[in-house]
Amino acid sequence: xxxxxxxxxxxxxxxxxxxxxxxxxxxxxxxxxxxxxxxxxxxxxxxxxxxxxxxxxxxxxxxxxxxxxxxxxxxxxxxxxxxxxxxxxxxxxxxxxxxxxxxxxxxxxxxxxxxxxxxxxxxxxxxxxxxxxxxxxxxxxxxxxxxxxxxxxxxxxxxxxxxxxxxxxxxxxxxxxxxxxxxxxxxxxxxxxxxxxxxxxxxxxxxxxxxxxxxxxxxxxxxxxxxxxxxxxxxxxxxxxxxxxxxxxxxxxxxxxxxxxxxxxxxxxxxxxxxxxxxxxxxxxxxxxxxxxxxxxxxxxxxxxxxxxxxxxxxxxxxxxxxxxxxxxxxxxxxxxxxxxxxxxxxxxxxxxxxxxxxxxxxxxxxxxxxxxxxxxxxxxxxxxxxxxxxxxxxxxxxxxxxxxxxxxxxxxxxxxxxxxxxxxxxxxxxxxxxxxxxxxxxxxxxxxxxxxxxxxxxxxxxxxxxxxxxxxxxxxxxxxxxxxxxxxxxxxxxxxxxxxxxxxxxxxxxxxxxxxxxxxxxxxxxxxxxxxxxxxxxxxxxxxxxxxxxxxxxxxxxxxxxxxxxxxxxxxxxxxxxxxxxxxxxxxxxxxxxxxxxxxxxxxxxxxxxxxxxxxxxxxxxxxxxxxx
Length: 630
Fold this sequence. Notes:
By secondary structure, the chain is α+β, with helices and mostly antiparallel strands. It contains 20 helices and nine strands. A nine-stranded mixed β-sheet has the order 5-6-4-7-3-2-8-1-9, sandwiched between helices. The mean pLDDT is 78.
């Protein structure tokens, strides 16, 4: 049998027995191909239309995916070498040189990488259309996406991961060159220090975490000291380390004394778990911190996206709005809209504004060329009804008004009772400040609602300008319609459209968030796969222990229960601690910025919890297959 055929046989056995490695590699390859297919997708380009920003973001995403793929490949290669040291030593005993064994391992790594690359690429091609439809739906658009196989995306995926697997093969060859084949017959067991858990040391976890959380800026308006923030992060990292180094072993030690505990968790599982914990404290800390950082970043990004979307909807409620007294412009705009049956006019409104100078510079919405747009109470009620805004308009006196200017923060609101000097129009008492525009947010400046009687008194002498607004159907796919309307509306009319504003401010952020969600999935997946490989290595080094249990009459189901109970506390405690860190970060963000973030973060927590559970069951399955393998 040639070396290549022997390598092919070994790869086939590994595909059967070690599902975690191939699935994690195939998953990373699939995600990378999906990113690349979005980069070259014509449908996505038509929706996003931001080539330069997309190119930069896809390059950064590629680096992130490749980095975590390198970590996964590195740990998996080390795992397979440790697991198969006895097999490789036997090759030396039957006459193979170390160079031949190195070539065998080199071929195996390349073949395994090729299998994962083929599996991931095929699955990526199948999922590409669904992925593109999901992105378009996530941005609020609809439409058909043709099935296409991007050769450029396939080429990039093969080039990057082919190079990674080549480096991994050379890495395995280099590791083999450092040891002799004879020494591989001896299984070196890692024996971490067997210090008994101490209840006093377990208190380090809450103490360090409380110190870290206490150093964070919880109150709004306080100046942020970055040195204080850095110290807080260091305390939190040390607290997370203490959770696995002292708190969890002490908790398990306490539970061992409870008789009811052993009805759920076998005694042997607790002993093996303590051994695993002592050797993997740093890894569990890293996995927990990466999970917390991913949950926090994705949760905050999703909240910002939702806030930005609501802000744009509030600022641009109408599909199109402009300021012009030219009725021919109205006729041209209506003719263009009538030419698009899929964008029929749902509602339209026109409002006449009185334009007054705005001299007080400390008003929200003021700028050097700002004009105060005065509108009557009746006209604002018509505009509000046209855009579906349910608002209760209070009765206004002769010298009272409601100031209209968008604000994001509560302190940007104007205090009630302020007097606004309008020159010839006299002084107006501002009774309210609302964040809604009359039509769309205008570059001319803020607006003012006055009583119908006051408006009628000012109309004879104040300059005026008519505002026209349309609300059309299917506005998020109105690119061609918007382009045609911009061609006929003069620049001085200051046309504003929902499509352009949404396109410039929201869509690109939505793409970033969508891909950040999947990059976070890769971070979680890579962390879980590394933890899985370490657990599998521990099980393989103690394989004789489990064989002894089978010889003593322990059934396969009982062995499965022991393995599951051994891994579950590590995975569950790590994930719960990561969620706890993320919750505290959400409460901190909400306290500082006076917003609620938690509700918008539950979805990504659910997604990542599924990833954790999937790796947990895959690891247990791989352990059982590895123990049953000859």
